[in-house]
Structures are given as structure tokens and as C-alpha cells.
Amino acid sequence: MHRLKSFLMLTDKGYADLKKAIGACTLSNLALMLPFIITIQIFAQLLKPLTGEAVDLPALWMLWGGGIAAAIVVFLASKYEYKKTYVTSYLEAENSRLSVAEQIRKLPMSFFNTRDLSELTTNIMADCATTEHVLSHIVPQLFANAVSILFICILTALYDWRMALSMFCTVPVSVCIIWGSKKVQTRLSEKQIEAKLNASGQIQEYLEGIKVIKSCGLDGAKFSSLNRALLLLKKMAIQMELGTGIFITGAQMVLQAGIGITVFAGTYLLTKGKIEFIPLLMFFVIVVKIYGPLIVELTLLPELFYHRTATKRMRILMNASVMEGDAGKHLKDWNIQLDNVSFSYNNQSQEENTVIKNLSLTIPANAITALVGPSGCGKSTVSKLIARFWDVNSGCIKIGGIDIKTLDPEHLMGYMSFVFQDVILFNDTVYNNIRIGNMNASEKEVRMAAKATCCDEFVSKLPEGYNTMLGENGYTLSGGERQRISIARALLKNAPIVLLDEATASLDPENEVLIQQAISKLIRGKTVIVIAHRLRTVEGADKIIVLEEGKLTEEGNHTELMQKKGLYERLYRMQQDSLGWSV
Ligand SMILES: Nc1ncnc2c1ncn2[C@@H]1O[C@H](COP(=O)(O)OP(=O)(O)OP(=O)(O)O)[C@@H](O)[C@H]1O
Fold first, then answer.
1. Is the CB of 345 inside a 6 Å radius of any atom of ligand 1?
2. Does residue 306 carry a pLDDT above 50?
3. Cβ pair 492, 449 in contact under 8 A
């Protein structure tokens, strides 16, 4: 049973509930036998005149009474079963969705590098729905049916083992057929799930990229690749149905041969005088009745195989090791130090994969440090490593003398504010989008942060001011407005370390002035790391670190670096020249 818990990835409560659901389902199945047993008894009474015996009327009335009582028991047992199977399975599905989301929050970014959004959405929605279905419609029924069948098998065997043998002799053969098809079904399930993921990925890409698709005239090409993905999905779904259908139908045919064997064996025993007519009739009624649950059992087993395949990715996700660390260690000094750090995104040590190479540098506390260098030199990567989005492959990063690998990532994040070029806004009100920076902030503090970052003026023009819904990723706002909201968020968080990654790169001069004003309020008295392409914007930084191909090449302030006449000076001059460029 414990294997079932890990197979279905259940929580402790979910596992306890599943055991209750199996018990309730078994109880309900056994209760359903009561009317059947009573009907047989009534039947036996009514047929007595055929053998010259008299009908026992008081016994018959008792049986009618028993029938009514059995109906009440069936009703109560079904109600209990419903509550225990369906209600608890939906609760458990909700829990498992939450635990997947919780796990995703704790996973290192390296985990996401090999997975796309549609796969993770499938993990949270479809895989959890599969578990929900298995919990509500498969496992309890599978176990309960098995118990009921075993119960009837024992009862009939006690009465007449020869008839029991003829009734159940085909069961092991048909179960073996289904079990033997496990490999084929797993392969078909894998292919179908792969096709499903591919199709949902294509749909997502098509919808997300609709602007580019239209502007580049890719409608035809992109639509045909989406079309191909959907056709493949259809093909795989049909293959899956056919593949499963062949085995299930084959197993059912073998199973139902048991009815013929029972009739043949019963008739043979009757002609030899080894069984009486009425018991034989009862066996015939039982055999017809029992084959219903047996057929259901044969169709439920393949669903269990499918579930195993469908939840493979979810299992990998839930078993992936999360980033850990101490949440109780407090940082008191914001001096950041990188000691001989090397890093590659795919965790491989070959030179061509290494993005950061034996990098040692110091980012002084309460000062502005700029990371500059040619595109792809590793500026953003360094900032991601400092925030522990990824762990370094070798060397170490210390903040205030403490290795950040020993700190809980969420705890570490509490010391940092980020302003990225790509602002992520949620489909919520302006107010709540700012408050994300500090969920404990009062309304006054949120409004103050919005005013300080020049959000107030555009928010007051929105139809419902701070209560205006922003739509998915704030599509109703301009780039500059979105950026100001993200700075308001960071200001509200008031973290001692601020990371600015190309925060003003794509803004027009008017917006840039507003954002510079907002940023200067945000970074006052903080340890600031600025990543910038336009060197003009970091001329005033206390320290400028120049990177090239993941290595430190120069460091100093603007004047010192200009005097060195190295890479920085070259890049600076090139950018100055390009200012005169026009179309
Ligand atoms: N998630 C990722 N997975 C694999 N490689 C990555 C990933 N992110 C960045 N890289 C690679 O790492 C290298 C450094 O990227 P990074 O974004 O740090 O450079 P950058 O200096 O910030 O560039 P830019 O100035 O163009 O933004 C690049 O070669 C890039 O292709």
C-alpha cells in the first residue's frame, strides 16, 4: 500500500483519505450485493413449487423486508462512498497542484532551463487532473471490485468449487493479457503525451508570437507547423485508442468465454446429477452479474498504466532537489565578493560552455557598481549568480562574508530588489502590482512609493485609478509606465541591495528622465549593481567592472578607465561616435 502512496504522489492526508475511499467503495460494492443475494433467495423460494416443495411465506416476507433494508443500506453506503472518493480526490488534487507550484518556487533556475512553460502548465493542470481522475474513478473501484470478486469467488467455491472454477478460470488469463500489454501501452502513452505537449507548446508559441507572426508574414508557415502538431496529436490519440482497444477487447473476449464454460460445466454437472437445478440457476445469475465488475476491472488497469506515464514528468519535478539554505542567518554587511567563480548554464565544465571563468571581484557596500562589457560577456549572469537564481559550479560568492550557498534563496531574496528591462506585471490592480514589493505595506506607503517613482500622474488618468485592472502582463500600459511600476515595487521593498539590469535601455528620453528620477530615489544609500549597455548612463558609478568573455578585464571609475585606454575606453568612444548616427 505504501508503494501506492509514492506511485500516486499523495500527501499523508491524501493517502489516509485514499484508504478510507477504498474502504468506502468496498463497503458500497458489498452493500450492492445484498439486494442481489436477497433476490436470489426470493427467486429460490418462488421456484420451490417446481420441485414439489411449498413456498415458505414468512421467510418470503422476511426477504421482502430485508430487500427494503438492503436498499437503505445501499443508499447510505453509496453516499459515504461518494463523499470519500470524489470529494477527497478533488481536495487532494488541489493539494497536489499547490505542492507542485510550491516545489516550482523552490527549484533552482537550472531546472527550468531544460523545460518550457507549456510543460510546466501541463504538470500543474493536466497531470494533477490525471491524478484526480485516478483517485476518484480508478484506484478505489479497482480495489473494491477486486475485494468483491474475491468475496464472491470464495462464497461460490465453498458452495461448489467446480462451478466456481468454471466461472473464474478465464480471469487470470485476461488479466495476464492486459498486464502483458503494459509495455506497448506505455510506449503508446509516451508518444501520445509527447504529441500533446508538442501541440500545447505550438499553440502557446503561436498565441504569444502572434504579433511577430503577423508582422513577418509567417501566418502560413507557423500555422502549418501548428496544424502538423495537431494532426500528429490526432494520429497518436487514434493509435492509443486502437492499441489499448485491441488488448482490452481481446481480454474481454477471453473473459466472457467464462460464461460459456460455466454454462457448459453446469449443464454437464446437472446431467450427471452432481448439481441441482435451482443452485445451477443461481450460478447462472451470479455469472452474468459478476462479469460486469470483472470487465470494468479490465478497463481500469490500462488507465493505471497511462497514469504512470502521464505523471512521469511530474514525478521528476517533485523529486528534483530544491535549493536549500539557512533562513535564520542574518546579513549585516552588504559587501559582495566573488572568489574564483566559474559557471556554465548546462553544468558542464568544457571551456566553450563556461560563461563565467575564474571570476574574482568585489562589489563594495553602499556604493554604485556598474557591470559593463560587450553583449554576451556575462553581465546578467553575474547578477543572477549573486541573487542565487543559479548556484556557481566552482568558487564562491559571499555577501558580508557569508557564502550565499548557505542561505535559503527566499531569505536571500529578501535582501534584494530587482529592476529588469523586461517588467513582469500580474493581471491584477495597479495597487496590488506595486504592493507585491512588500505585502505588509500600508496603503499610504504604497501610494508614497508610487508618487516617488512618478507613477501617480499616469495612474490618476486610468479609469479606476489604483484599482484599475492591468490585464495580462499589464498590456494596457506603455513600456515606461510598466518600468515605473516595477521601480515603485522595488522602492516599497526597501531592500539593502538593488540590482538594475538594463532598466532604462529601451525608453524614450522623456521616460528615461522620469525613470532616472525614480531610480535615484530607489538607490539612495543602497548597495547598487547596475548592468548597462550605454556607458554614458554609468559614468557616475563609484566603481565600473569591465567583463569580457566571462572574465574581468578592467576595473576602476570612469576617469581611471578612460585613462587606461583599454576595452572600456574603446566601447565608450564607439558609443559616443554612434550618437551622431542617424537614419
Ligand atoms: N538561460 C541560459 N541558458 C543557457 N545559456 C545562457 C542562458 N542565459 C544566458 N546564456 C548565455 O550566457 C552567456 C552570457 O549571457 P548574459 O545574458 O549573462 O550576457 P550579457 O553580458 O548580460 O549580455 P547582454 O548584454 O547582451 O544582455 C551568453 O552566451 C548567453 O547566450
1. yes
2. yes
3. yes
